[in-house]
Design goal:
With 795 residues, the protein is an alpha+beta fold. It is 43% helix and 18% strand. The chain contains 27 helices and 29 strands.
Length: 795
């Protein structure tokens, strides 16, 4: 029996109990003075809560934050066990016997009922003892377990004295006594009180009073907490903290330097589990992290952040909304700070708090699940506040590779550079297990930087296009089976096993696999390996192989034979069928008088769409051109087109109604039939069609096509045509246009511009954001606006 008890006893139970003056003895050696203790272990088998077996109440719940439904069920179950006096049925096999060490500082208070919490892992670890004394009064005792926690207890004692000296009215702190070095006795304020998970007016009032009593103005560059944070970030670099979060903190640091700031005495661990509401007054425990000269609203942010992450498991958007509401209310009461200071003080909080904790976590060998939750949310929050300093695309790429830190993956053809320095036109190809790919997609879709996510699902990969909040794009290919059509050319497991880390924290596909990937991918598509990848083939005479040779070799592989071959072909067919109509193409038109800058804008937009959206772009001039221009009948197509290019616009001499009707019917037939050809040939295949001029010229400028018909007549024809998804009219001041191109008279430019603006206004009244006039004075702004609107339609 003794052996069984000892085997059930955690190996460090003796050390914990020795800290408070109790010696563990075998059950067979118990005497009248010995005491039986029950305990509950952590998941890793170490003791968490220890209490006296004779206790009639579950006093260890004093250390337990009862906040969620699950925690309330847990607490109720144990309270019921104690109420029915059934402890021995549940804990008799989890018990130890102890005797008191009379010379220990805490020995006198261990004669009665007590409960012990062994603390949370980490360098700040300390135990907390709850004691019911002989006079039935109760106290808490904090016992330091390291030099660091001993210093924290000294800080707590000092700060509590400072707060007591303020004579606060809306909150109170426990009376505290130093028992011995590293042991503090604290008044129990928990009677007739309750914990609140939400930030109530009582919490608000307490923080407002503390702020008003201790507010001071300062500069971030001179604040001790800022200087300490810089050192903590540097120290964290040597641990297991993801480099992305460190990089973001260093970036934020640069933008927070030398800023005016209001500071206050701050609790710095202001959470539901360290506060109790009692008679409209707040009791505040655990002042060990407290510090003066802390940026305003730190405690407010900390309470809402910790509750949102650890209790409510809320997303960043929800937490931020609550933070902003509470900060605005706080600012309106204290007056010193303004509601518009929200972003600045949130940044101060995130920088100081995150720096402090990543240093601690870097020192911990084992992380509990909550650490992962906290790091993920701090990442999200830092991404958000950095948006005004750093492009969203760069921030999200860093976040992506932080997320992948503990995932088995390999980047394909990834350049040897820091991830966030990738070209804005570069996409990211990653191979990983299918389950990991979809977990990554779920993570990215809920990221606060992502406005919209578009995913193309295939049997062997997923193509992801992310439209970010600043309208930039990030495209990823997530591959779990290396295939070209129905031919597989790699086994994923082999690639993942041989992936190697580069100097920038990216796990790359091995060099040999990369070389073969390039050879197979381009060879099976009957293409040459691009010159930019030639470095992979330096030891070899050529980097290209014929498709026939590759197919002959790959068809001997097990994954391209028998049932595997049949499944590959079936999946290829299913992929093709499944994605019919999925690829979203678009028709975009550009109108404007000569000199408005259409050609330049179209060239820039074409480049943007091909590089950023990975779309094939087709430029069509004026009409589908299913039918040739009329002059081609007499001059031939090539000569007619050449003559048209050399002739100034609006030079046609036709004035006859019949001739105009015939010309219009001819060109309208081209539009009407050609629109179906264009749609099937390009749009259904997911391509972007850019029209340099469109049917609107027949309405407003039919003279250009040597046609003279009433506007109302030509306008009717537009209603029988498919409507392009986006139509842009580019214009500028008439004098500016004449400086660019002297082809039209000043009065003509003004008249045509007014006619187009009126037409687009009429058409756009029913279809907002489909007919867009743009004053094209600055090319970059024009292209940015057009790209944004196209991206909204496509991404």
């Amino acid at each position: 029996m003794v052996l069984v008890l000892l085997r059930k006893t955690p190996s460090n139970m003796k050390e914990y109990l020795a800290q408070i003056g109790l010696d563990v003895i075998p059950a067979s050696h118990q005497t009248k003075s010995s005491v039986q203790l029950y305990y509950i272990n952590n998941v890793d088998g170490t003791p968490r809560w220890i209490w006296t077996a004779k206790s009639r109440k579950a006093n260890f719940l004093k250390f337990y934050a009862i906040s969620s439904f699950r925690s309330r069920v847990f607490a109720f179950a144990y309270q019921l066990v104690f109420l029915l006096q059934l402890q021995h049925l549940f804990f008799s096999r989890k018990s130890v016997y102890v005797t008191r060490n009379e010379s220990a500082a805490l020995s006198p208070v261990l004669k009665n009922n007590f409960a012990l919490f062994t603390g949370t892992k980490g360098p700040n670890r300390k135990m907390v003892l709850y004691v019911i004394k002989e006079n039935l009064s109760t106290s808490f005792y904090k016992i330091a377990l390291s030099n660091t926690s001993e210093l924290l207890l000294a800080t707590e004692y000092k700060k509590i004295q400072e707060v007591e000296a303020l004579n606060p009215q809306s909150f109170k702190v426990p009376t505290t006594t130093i028992i011995s070095k590293g042991i503090l006795e604290m008044e129990d304020l928990s009677n007739q009180s309750s914990r609140k998970n939400n930030f109530t007016p009582i919490h608000h009032k307490a923080l407002a009073e503390l702020f008003t009593a201790t507010v001071a103005s300062s500069n971030t560059s001179t604040l001790p907490c800022f200087m300490a944070a810089a050192k903590q970030i540097e120290a964290a670099k040597n641990g297991r903290i993801p480099q992305g979060i460190i990089s973001r903190l260093e970036t934020l640091q640069l933008h927070l330097e030398n800023q005016p700031v209001f500071t206050t005495l701050s609790h710095k661990d202001f959470t539901p589990w360290n506060c109790l509401v009692q008679n409209n007054q707040l009791a505040m425990y655990d002042w060990e992290l407290a510090a003066s000269e802390t940026p305003a609203a730190f405690d407010l942010f900390h309470f809402i952040m910790q509750t949102g992450i650890l209790v409510n498991h809320a997303n960043w958007r929800t937490i931020k909304e609550q933070l902003q509401r509470s900060f605005i209310a706080f600012a309106s009461e204290v007056k010193t700070i303004k509601a518009t200071d929200f972003d600045a003080y949130l940044s101060y909080y995130l920088y100081i708090n995150t720096a402090y904790y990543i240093q601690l976590y870097a020192q911990q060998e084992e992380w509990h699940l909550q650490v992962d939750w906290l790091l993920a949310m701090w990442n999200e929050a830092l991404n958000d506040v950095l948006q005004k300093y750093t492009p969203s695309r760069e921030v999200l790429i860093n976040t992506l590779f932080d997320y992948l830190l503990n995932t088995q993956y390999a980047a394909i053809k990834f350049p040897n550079t820091l991830p966030h320095l990738l070209s804005e036109y570069a996409d990211i190809d990653l191979c990983m297990q299918k389950s990991d790919a979809y977990q990554l997609i779920a993570y990215l879709k809920q990221n606060s930087l992502v406005q919209k996510a578009s995913i193309v699902h295939k049997s062997y990969m997923a193509s992801v296009t992310l439209q970010l909040r600043n309208n930039s794009l990030l495209c990823l290919d997530l591959i779990w089976q290396f295939k070209c059509k129905s031919i597989q050319f790699f086994a994923l497991e082999e690639v993942l096993q041989k992936a190697t880390w580069n100097a920038f924290g990216v796990k790359n596909m091995g060099e040999e696999h990369t070389r073969n990937y390039l050879r197979y991918f381009y060879g099976l598509n009957n293409a040459q390996v691009p010159e930019k990848y030639s470095a992979y083939f330096l030891p070899y005479k050529t980097c290209n192989s014929s498709k026939q040779q590759l197919l002959k070799y790959l068809k001997t592989k097990p994954y391209n034979r028998g049932i595997s071959s049949i499944m590959n072909q079936l999946n290829y067919v299913l992929d093709a069928v499944k994605n019919i109509g999925f690829h979203k193409g678009i028709i975009i038109t550009f109108s404007g008088v000569d000199g408005a800058g259409k050609s330049t804008v179209i060239a820039e937009v074409k480049h943007e769409m091909e590089k950023k959206l990975r779309k094939k772009v087709v430029v069509i001039r004026h009409r589908p051109s299913l039918l040739p221009i009329l002059s081609a009948i007499t001059k031939g197509k090539q000569n007619a087109e050449q003559a048209t290019m050399q002739t100034l616009p609006r030079q046609g001499k036709n004035k006859a109604l019949i001739s105009s009707l015939l010309r219009f019917a001819y060109y309208y037939t081209d539009y009407f039939i050609g629109q179906f050809i264009v749609y099937i040939k390009y749009v259904m295949r997911g391509e972007v069609v850019l029209y340099d001029r469109y049917y609107f010229d027949f309405i407003n400028d039919s003279i250009r096509s040597n046609i003279r018909l009433p506007k109302w007549f030509t306008k009717l024809g537009y209603y029988l045509l498919m409507k392009p998804q986006l139509n842009f009219f580019l214009y500028a001041d008439a004098k500016v246009i004449l400086q660019r191109k002297q082809e039209l008279e000043l009065s003509t430019i003004k008249q045509l511009t007014n006619d187009y603006l009126l037409l687009f206004g009429q058409l756009g009244s029913a279809k907002q954001n489909q007919y867009v006039p743009i004053e094209n004075m600055e090319l970059n702004k024009t292209v940015a606006l057009i790209s944004h609107l196209i991206t909204q339609k496509l991404a």
